[in-house]
Specification:
With 507 residues, the chain is mainly β. 0% of the residues lie in helices and 48% in strands.
Length: 507
């Protein structure tokens, strides 16, 4: 079988993702993103005018997942969408009229429903319901009558990140990609539920499986990445043009880095032990030591206390995420948060009395804070919040949101929530004594480190990375400025590659 010459269908500067074939092969549906908002469009398979069916909103983390599915009769598109101040749900869009109706509704403490996939007969739809990070579950729901929500049944459960799913042609099984610390793999499970079985002989590092309805073919993406921690000069460096240095590295993922306030240590998250655990090392990047040994639930977002004696981090437990505290010398972590909601992204107040975090306990993501010694949590924001840091003077809380880029601030005691920056987003910004530091991609081939001054309220370019630098812009990375401002740590993807794999005679 020979590959044909590629035909470019779209030229818009927006981000075009999630292509889905119409059943007759005559059209493609796709999503065109601007920030977290996307247009739902169709286009003839051989090129031609685009047709807009509607608009949806989903979190940036899901941009590259298959969030569109075309019904077998060609009349409906299933898509993940999120109403304001609600979690994501699966909606059905009429191809003829563009009318959109809601099919699923996750409990309010969940992140929502994503990755819809119609069954071959069109009577059911599989989707991923995410309770928290690495706690994805597959559900199947009947395509209910207009005006009613379907009643979904759970097919799988586990502490995995699901990166794509599809039905087998007979409609009896579902194949899915599950990402764990050691990489992703393809699995098969009965659509009625049961124990999943790993695909034998193929599927290593597999993402986004797609099974042909005829011809017994399986296609998937094989993808490998290796993020490591690098160092560049900070605002008070002797040489602001010094070349980047690889600082903390292994053959596994090393991310979410932060200097200790006393400048002696560094904390980071790594899979070098086989699972995401919290590690520390000396400020020179040497003598790494494993701090946690959860052995499964991925630990992340480590943050030092002001006295450099404690570290707060998040990890899923019993299907939801919580905040934990552990001594910088090691020991048994203490769970700070409780309840049925998700609690993530901790940080400390300047006096060490409070731990800030994001929680969806109110039905949407907001910034909260709880006493570090334990006690009742207090809500800080009301207009949304996902990651927060207290200002060095202790007067304000600066924070990012999940649904849109930018940085906001609110007084520590609460009050008006005001925008500060229209750039930066979760995981790729940091607070320092003089301002905010963040990545900027004005030129995709030459990214920059920008600094926002608290005093002038303007942003300037601090550092231009070498051309072609592949900065990690995912939500589980981090930027950290050393206490004296001489250095900045960040995450860079040193190895990234993927290819498409075709499996013939797949059964």
């Amino acid at each position: 079988m020979e590959a044909g010459k590629p035909l470019r269908l779209t030229t818009n500067p927006g981000l075009d993702v999630s292509p889905a074939w119409s059943p007759d092969g005559g059209h493609l549906a796709f999503l065109r993103y601007t920030g977290s908002v996307a247009e739902v469009l169709t286009i003839p398979a051989l090129g031609g005018p685009e047709r807009k069916l509607g608009q949806v909103t989903t979190e940036p983390f899901y941009v590259f997942f298959a969030n569109l599915s075309w019904s077998p009769d060609g009349r409906i598109l299933a898509v993940a969408d999120r109403a304001p101040q609600e979690n994501a749900s699966i909606y059905l869009i009429s191809i003829e009229s563009g009318e959109k109706r809601r099919l699923t509704s996750a409990p309010h403490e969940y992140e929502g429903d994503f990755q819809p996939s119609f069954s071959p007969d069109g009577k059911s739809l599989a989707f991923v319901r995410r309770r928290s990070w690495a706690s994805d579950e597959i559900y199947v729901v009947p395509v209910a009558a207009v005006g009613s929500l379907g009643v979904p049944s759970r097919v799988s459960s586990g502490q995995d990140i699901i990166l794509g799913l599809d039905w087998t042609p007979n409609g009896r099984n579902i194949m899915f990609s599950a990402a764990q610390a050691g990489g992703s793999a393809l699995w098969i499970i009965l659509a009625a539920g049961g124990r999943p079985e790993r695909l034998a002989g193929a599927g290593e590092n597999g993402v986004g499986p797609s099974i042909s309805r005829q011809g017994n073919r399986l296609a998937y993406q094989r993808s490998v990445t290796d993020p490591n921690i690098w160092r560049i000069p900070g605002p008070n460096a002797h040489d602001l043009r010094a070349a980047p240095e690889k600082w903390i590295a292994s053959t596994e993922a090393d991310q979410e880095v932060q200097f200790s306030p006393d400048g002696k240590k560094i904390v980071f998250a790594s899979t070098r032990s086989g699972n995401y655990e919290i590690w520390t090392c000396e400020s020179n990047g040497h003598e790494p030591a494993q701090l946690t040994s959860l052995g499964g639930p991925p630990a992340g977002s480590p943050r030092w206390s002001p006295d450099s004696r404690w570290i707060a981090f998040d990890a899923p437990k019993a299907g939801k995420a919580d905040i934990f505290l552990i001594s910088a010398d090691g020991g048994v972590p203490r769970m700070l948060t409780s309840g049925t909601a998700n609690n993530i992204r901790p940080s400390w107040s300047g006096d060490g009395r409070w731990v800030y975090f994001s929680s969806n306990r109110s039905g949407n993501w907001q910034i909260w804070k709880a006493p570090a010694q334990g006690g009742l949590a207090v809500q800080v924001t009301k207009g949304g919040g996902y990651e927060a840091f207290e200002s060095p003077d202790g007067k304000f809380v600066y924070y990012s949101k999940l649904e849109s880029p930018g940085i906001w601030r609110v007084a520590v005691e609460g009050g008006e929530e005001t925008p500060v920056l229209d750039k930066a987003s979760t995981g790729i910004w940091a607070i320092a004594k003089d301002g905010i530091y963040f990545f900027d991609w004005k030129d995709v081939l030459r990214p920059m480190m920008q600094s926002y001054s608290f005093s002038s309220r303007h942003s300037t370019t601090l550092y231009e990375f070498p051309r072609g630098t592949n900065l990690d812009n995912s939500s589980n990375t981090a930027i950290s400025v050393s206490p004296g401002g001489r250095w900045i740590l960040y995450t860079q993807i040193d190895q990234a590659g993927s290819n498409l794999v075709l499996v013939e005679n797949f059964r």
